[in-house]
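--- STAGE predict ---
source: upstream dedup step, 1 unique chain passed
mode: sequence only
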Amino acid sequence: MLGAGGDRALTHARLVLAVGAIGVAVNAVAWIVEGHPQPYHAAPLLLVLWVAADLLKTPRPAAARAVRAAAGVLLVAVGLAVGVPAATALVRGEAVDWLDLVLGVLVVLYAAVAVIVLAVRKGGRKGGRKGPRYVSGARIGENGPHERS
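--- STAGE serialize ---
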């Protein structure tokens, strides 16, 4: 048995990294044999990138952020590659692969949230006030006597 929970999580992350690397190799061979990439070929690569970012979080935080950003860009690219044709088919009234359409919508929402988070982080770094803003107004008792019923 492993000692601490951190050791167990590290072992699981390495196991997922190894399985994901095997999946990347299998999908690379399938891509070469078939001759054209499919969006699902990126799934193991996404898994490997996210686990690698998790493993790099403590020793190299800057590298972990870069790997996580690369995984996010790959996710958005794959989601758009799948979702745009599905949305086009929906607009044209053709047969729609609903799974692809839902994946495209989720990726657009993911990208929107990522942009909002980046905007909030960049806005917080500009300086200025720390904490809530207060609007000046009347203090208690400044509005004159109040009638009680």
